[in-house]
Amino acid sequence: MSETPPNTLQYRFDGPEDAPVLILGPSLGTTWHMWDRQVPELTRQWRVFRFDLPGHGGAPAHPAGSVGELTGRLLATLEGLGVQRFGYAGCALGGAVGIELALRHPERLASLALLAASPRFGTADEFRRRGVVVRTNGLDPIARSAPERWFTGGFAAAQPAITEWAVQMVRTTDPGCYIAACEALASFDARAGLGSVGVPTLVLVGSEDQVTGPAEARTLVAGIPDARLAVVPGASHLVPVEQPAAVTDLLVRHFSTAWQPAYDTATGQTALPAAMVQPVLAAPPQPAPVAEIAPAVPAQGTHTASDPYDTGLKVRREVLGDAHVDRILAEADDFSGDFQELVTRYAWGGVWDRPGLDRRTRSCVTLTALVAGGHLDDLALHTRAALRNGLTPDEIKEVLLQAAVYCGIPAANAAFRVAQRVVREETTPQE
To answer: Which residues pair with 11 in a beta bridge?
Structure first.
């Protein structure tokens, strides 16, 4: 185990010191123990490196708000240990780290396995709303529902000890680090880059996974040039825990036969890797529709990379949510389109993106102004945005009380009714 500076990750090694390194990356809410039943077999051939996400498994609570930042911390940890080249298998959020490695640091990867992974995990709105729920209610609601997301019903009923282990694993995670990891998943979108993944890749998914299931797995296989699909029957999202023997066998087969040699530093070229194994549990993947791997919805019109419209659209989506912004832009026509462009460019790209105030403070100012103006529809929208920007319900209450003094009791009375409804909707855990 390890001492953990803020820019690195908590880790452990298992297996012979002279063996090639194989890294196992965890899912959101789990610890390195999710791989316990794979380690005995994997350490016959590899030196297995496992890590914990920040604030998970007792790791120091230094939140990382993007997949790129998590990947950077992993690489900094490996640099300190002198590990230059490795195989990598990651589950869900750990799989996103694997995709990031393949896109940004391909020279470090010998082979890749993506379990319960996706080039984009649901929608940004879903994960940011989960962050709001955790910020308001703590992790207990998420912990209690974890077995439903992670395991099939039959497994959860037959394995009460593992089910309770899963609940406690989530419950003991640092809430701030969990929220930051949700933000990392919300902003992760690798769909446009899949064709650049040049490392041999096994895409492995449980047949009953309702979180990132076979459809997402086939999107990965359709987009990655050298990828094979393995569908494990009778398994849900946390497939290494639910079907350990099948997962171990598939990983051994993949990393034994698809370990790409290192770059030749003199020529910059790589020898052709060995032919990949056909996973025994896979049906030949069907090509996914092009729409499945299309880039995110582009902004209307043509804009240069330095155009504040692009910055504004990004900020607007992060604060108000993709669903709202998509609806507003879809409704824009020749009459209203110029106004929407003005709002995106100058309000969101010009003012909201300025560094002088953080988003929490800007939300406080915005809520007060909307109370003063009696703009209740926009107040509902920006109450959701304030929760997304990190304000708690108690802090929103204090903003409205302050507004009552300076904007008037009737205005604040109407504002409290609107904000109360939104807070209830946004902070009530979904069944």
So the answer is: 51
